[in-house]
From TrEMBL, chains A, B:
The record marks 15 as: Transition state stabilizer. Keywords: Aromatic hydrocarbons catabolism, Lyase, Manganese, Metal-binding. Belongs to the 4-hydroxy-2-oxovalerate aldolase family. GO terms for molecular function: 2-isopropylmalate synthase activity; 4-hydroxy-2-oxovalerate aldolase activity; manganese ion binding. It comes from Heyndrickxia ginsengihumi. GO terms for biological process: L-leucine biosynthetic process. This is 4-hydroxy-2-oxovalerate aldolase. Substrate binds at residues 15-16, 169, 196, 287. PROSITE patterns: PYR_CT. Mn(2+) binds at residues 16, 196, 198. The gene is dmpG.
Length: 347, 347
């Protein structure tokens, strides 16, 4: 294997990890963690609500602390690391982005569903105008075929993005699928290619190495696996693995191990393991937000919530189509018993 | 990718996982877990002390329950699954093996350091004479070059083993190293090839898929990651991944997920995560038993225990050479300060 460039890591524990702490980060926690990450020489630290700028809401979970205060806190202690923000058009606004840039965020990551890059145009252009390094973030990348992803990556490049990421939001991709996706967009675009993994199928690290082998040079990690679902590629482990492979990251491994053990592990609400729920989400390839809906529907119709989630995955149901969950539960119940009545009616 | 055969999984939570519960398994726990694994149609269930037959000792940790009672309990509830036992010549004896066979164990896995297959001859031959399916288990396989491993695998085949395993005891191998090892022994021997991973570098699943890609057909997994260090390839996740790849295992995924969530998670003393210690062991590529020694020596000589472990890995120190740990600590201290005095003398 040969590697063209240094790998640049973005630490997402203060953004994707926000899900793992129910968006309860405090200024003090963010200050402590960002300071340690800066000392370990992490290139980029992402700080926002788990669902990006403006994510704090009843729908996505209310943040304990205004994310702008958290961004300011991270900026204040980072003289090496650049602070990144995530923005999902439709959740965050151009105004949020401008405010983040004003208080010192240097990188904007504009995230859309893998087939909807076109809604990122204005945001990517604004981020570039604001002088930010800009990333196009193609979420749920397991849901589209390679050709579609290539088309969407080209769109993001055309809007001015400096990097395009393949994002395995559900932790559903297998190594060969990662290879095919990274290889194809590497051939189609001339900007940086990145990869963001989730560990629901225990493949975050394996998939990350497959992505690097195919030429991805921007990689997301979360210290102590602090991310949604089963967490992301564990940053301190990734740095150790890359070191063993002779790939330089410029990051201080011991400092990173120490902040994981001595700081981050203390604020975790529960360990980041692969349990029945996270495995089911990765296996089915669906949004984690479907889980609770599926469990409720499963109870109502006396079916297994896993069967519902797997069926939703097969039908490629996306966010906004939650109504389908009850329909699928009813169908499964009918198939099972010959009637589609909620269980409360049949007992 | 094409796959020649069905993958046969050996569940090691009741053996390797014995480390994770400090060898405190009870007859009731083993009965409950083995019964559920049998119902899920796991082909092989390994049951012994974490260090194999006869492992219960002050040196390796005393078992709460006589392992023969645990084997009997597992045999009693398994009409589908075959019960396997691990034996390390020097720890377990031929008599232990005969007793295990007498009470119903159907598979013997004879484990040696990767360069010491010759000490397994008598045990493999005896196991075959007892009518057991027999596996040669090459431990710490990251410590020997490919040619050496091929030579050792051939020895085990010549003694009559039905299968030879590449065992990544320290969780130190990278996917390309796994591929090279499996490929080479597949070409050199005509019996089954197996792979046993540890997750210290978050690569248990990635390495397992690499092994399968190169033709390994026998794979070890531990439910809920219940194994030494950071645990093994998580069985229920492996079954889900193989299913997604179209590889049949004959195992009931939902039943396996349920026993993981409802039974095994309850008896775990701590979650199986990758922490500073397990990461260091995988990065250094050393025995987990070195950890405590290294920490003591580090304190005495005021050096970082990680530096000691990494140096031990570089020198390929193996079990039985624990004296070297203090020597290495003294050398590192000398290099650091110009003197090799224990810190208690220099303060």
């Amino acid at each position: 294997m040969t590697f063209e460039k240094e790998i640049k890591i973005t630490e997402v524990a203060l953004r994707d990890g926000s899900h793992a702490v129910s968006h309860q980060y405090t200024v003090e926690q963010v200050t402590t963690i960002a300071k340690a990450l800066n000392e370990a020489r992490i290139p980029y630290i992402e700080v926002t609500h788990g669902d990006g700028l403006g994510g704090s809401s009843l729908q996505y979970g209310l943040s304990k602390t205004d994310e702008m205060k958290l961004i300011e806190a991270a900026v204040a202690v980072s003289d090496f690391s650049k602070i990144a923000v995530l923005l999902l058009p439709g959740i965050g606004t151009i105004e949020d982005l401008k405010q983040a840039a004003k208080i010192g965020a240097k990188m904007a990551r504009i995230a859309t569903h893998v087939t909807e890059a076109d809604i990122a145009k204005q945001h990517i252009e604004t981020a570039k105008d604001l002088g930010m390094e800009t990333v196009g973030f193609l979420m749920m990348s397991h849901m589209a075929p390679v050709e579609k992803i290539v088309e969407q990556a080209k769109l993001m490049e055309s809007y001015g993005a400096d990097t395009v990421y393949i994002v395995d939001s559900a932790g559903a991709l297998l190594p060969d699928q990662v290879r095919a996706r990274i290889k194809a967009i590497r051939q189609a675009i001339s900007i940086n290619v990145g990869f963001h993994a989730h560990n629901n199928l225990s493949l975050a690290m394996g998939n990350t190495l497959a992505a690097i082998e195919e030429g991805a040079t921007r990689i997301d990690g979360s210290i102590r696996c602090l991310g949604a679902g089963a967490g992301n590629t564990q940053t301190e482990v990734l740095v150790a693995v890359l070191d063993r492979m002779g790939i330089q990251t410029g990051i201080d491994l011991y400092k990173l191990m120490d902040v994981s053990e001595d700081v981050v592990s203390q604020i975790l609400q529960k360990p980041q393991i692969i349990n029945r729920d996270s495995l089911t989400l990765g296996y089915a390839g669906v949004y984690s937000s479907f889980l609770l809906h599926a469990k409720r529907a499963a109870e109502k119709f006396s079916v297994d919530s896993r069967d519902i989630l797997i069926e939703l995955g097969k039908r490629k149901i996306v966010g906004g189509q939650e109504d389908m969950i009850v329909d699928v539960a009813a169908e499964l119940s009918k198939k099972k018993s010959g009637s589609a009545c909620p269980s409360t009616y049949t007992t």
